[in-house]
């Protein structure tokens, strides 16, 4: 945003000279309110907030000034600008819940504003940036996907949509990784049927992700362990057709060859339907 990069800090510096620095911190880390803040205009306070964003290591300090504009000048144009900047400041401070609240408030109050797209994007980012290691609960990942989709669908011709598409793919891959992690655990414990159910989810619902080759190879492994050779062969055939250069195909092929089995479709199972679709192009 152009406003974020503003270098017009003269008013901010003048305001800073009259405000106590190094003051005590309250609550979330807000600086103690200067007693004479009411004597400054909304623009002067806004510039002070910009100054804090550019120069302070504590984005919360900037949030304080932006929130004061809402309090002192609630119906002004500066209050509208300050609200979106609150969302940005909270996000930079990794206070994601507050960032979501401020962004949603902007969307609800100014749905037709030019910054509504950015507010929607910040809302999505507040979920996306909380996606951590694979082992954690995936609720935030689902929420990130939903929010990113909203940006893509509501503002398709914006830079935020383009960024959201990339992040959507990464979040989608993250969900597949979670299924793979659980499936591997079940396979290691000898719970082959439970493992198959997880790998099936990846093949059917996340087949565009980077985890599909391994999922097919693990299906070969799990079905062979259960003595279900037709299913194992079909999984190997799909893997060979789509990912023949993958090391996972080499491993699956070695397992099948060790049983004297070819990597070709056999029998009639859910994998046979996948084979008809992705290899033979038969969707009915």
Automatic annotation (TrEMBL):
Compartment annotation: Cell outer membrane
Superkingdom, natural source: Bacteria
Membrane topology per record: Lipid-anchor
Keyword annotations from UniProtKB, A to Z: Cell outer membrane, Lipoprotein, Membrane, Palmitate, Signal
Signal sequence bounds: 1-21
Gene Ontology annotations of biological process type: Gram-negative-bacterium-type cell outer membrane assembly; protein insertion into membrane
Alphabetical list of InterPro entries matching this protein: BamD, BamD-like, TPR-like_helical_dom_sf
Outer membrane lipoprotein BamD-like domain residues: 41-235
GO cellular component: cell outer membrane
Description of how the protein assembles with itself and partners: Part of the Bam complex.
Membership in a protein family: Belongs to the BamD family.
HAMAP family: OM_assembly_BamD
Function: Part of the outer membrane protein assembly complex, which is involved in assembly and insertion of beta-barrel proteins into the outer membrane.
Official protein name in the record: Outer membrane protein assembly factor BamD
Protein's organism: Paracoccus tegillarcae
Lineage: Bacteria, Pseudomonadati, Pseudomonadota, Alphaproteobacteria, Rhodobacterales
